[in-house]
Protein 1
Amino acid sequence: DAKTTQPNSMESNEEEPVHLPCNHSTISGTDYIHWYRQLPSQGPEYVIHGLTSNVNNRMASLAIAEDRKSSTLILHRATLRDAAVYYCILRDVSYSNYQLIWGAGTKLIIKP
Amino acid sequence: DSGVTQTPKHLITATGQRVTLRCSPRSGDLSVYWYQQSLDQGLQFLIHYYNGEERAKGNILERFSAQQFPDLHSELNLSSLELGDSALYFCASSATGGNYNEQFFGPGTRLTVL
C-alpha cells in the first residue's frame, strides 16, 4: 500500500487559512487521495478527496501537485471547531479491498 | 450525526470474556467496515462486509469475528479478550464498496478490558 507522510502537529490562528501538507511520493496512477478528520472524542468524518485535479467543497479545498507526489488540504478560514486530527489517505481504485489505510495524521491546533 | 449508530457506547469487561459490538449503517448503505483505534493511534482496518458478504480482511485477530445480517446491520464479536484489546472500535458505512465513496463513521464503542 502506498504510504503518506504528514507532520505530527500544526498550529494556526483562528480565522486564518490553514495549509495541511501530505507527501505521497509512491502514489500510483490509480490512487485517490482522501482526507478525513477526527474531532476529539468522535468518529472520523470525510473531508474531501481527489485524483488529479484540485477539488473544492463546502469544508475545504484540496490542492494536488502536478506530479501527484504531494497534496495540501486547505481550510480557508479556520475556526476552533476545526481543531482535530487530519488524516491523508491513499485509496487504490484497482485494489479490491476498498479499505482505508490510516497513518498517524496531523493534529491541528487552533489558537483563539 | 453521520447516520451510523453503534451500541453500546461503552463496554467494560474482564480478560477472557466475550463481547459483541453492534453497528447499524446509514439507511441504504450496503458496505460496513470495522476499525480499531488504540490510544492516540490511527485507525486499523479490521474487516469489510458488502451486502452480507465478507469483502476484505485487514489486521483482524482470529479471536475476532464479524458478520453482516440481511437487514445490513453488523456485529463484531471479540472473544478471549486480552488487556491489549482495550480500544475504540469504529464502524463505518458507505453506499457501495467503491474507492470514491466516502465512508460515514459511527461514534464508536469504547472497550475497556480489565
Protein 2
Amino acid sequence: NAGVTQTPKFQVLKTGQSMTLQCAQDMNHEYMSWYRQDPGMGLRLIHYSVGAGITDQGEVPNGYNVSRSTTEDFPLRLLSAAPSQTSVYFCASTGTPNQPQHFGDGTRLSIL
Amino acid sequence: EDKVVQSPLSLVVHEGDTVTLNCSYEVTNFRSLLWYKQEKKAPTFLFMLTSSGIEKKSGRLSSILDKKELFSILNITATQTGDSAIYLCAVLRGDATNKLIFGTGTLLAVQP
C-alpha cells in the first residue's frame, strides 16, 4: 500500500516559471489537502478538497491553483513562481474527518 | 482567528529523561486535537484526542486533553535518541472542511 505519494521530491525553479506538484493516494480517501511548511511557522493550509470536483481555499492560497478531477489525484499548480514560495510542500489525505490525516514525504521547492 | 501555540519551541534532554510538551489552542468549532512526530520527512500520526481527561498511551508516549482549559500535553518517558524530532500539535475543526490548524512545533533533541 503506497499511501500518499508526492512527486517530485526536489525541484528548483526560476522566478516566473510555472510547475505542478503531484499528489496521489491509493486509499480511496475523500479528503485531501496541501500544506506548506516554513521554518518557525509550522504547517499552513494552502488548498483542500472534500471530494472529487470540490476544492476550496485554505489559509495561504495566493499564487496556487488546485483541481480534483479524480478521487486519487490532487495536483498543486504554481502559476508564476516567486521566491516567497520557497518551502517544503506536503500533501495529506484522510477518509473521514474522524480519522487522522496521512502525509506524503513532501516536495522541497526552491525558487531562485 | 484560530490559533494553536506549542511550548517550548525547542528542548534538549539526555537519554532517560522525561519530557512534557505543551499545546494550547483557541479554535472555533473544535473537533479533536492531534499529535504528530516529524523526523526527516512526513509527519507521522501519534494520537488523536477528542474527549477531556482520557489519557492515550503508546509505549513510552502518552497524551491528554483538557477541553475546559484548552490545552493538551504530550509526555515522553525514558527518552531515547530515536525520539529526537519535531513534535507537531494540530487541531481539527468540526465543520465539513476537515481543516487542520497546526502549531509551530517543538524541536526535541535527545542526547546520548
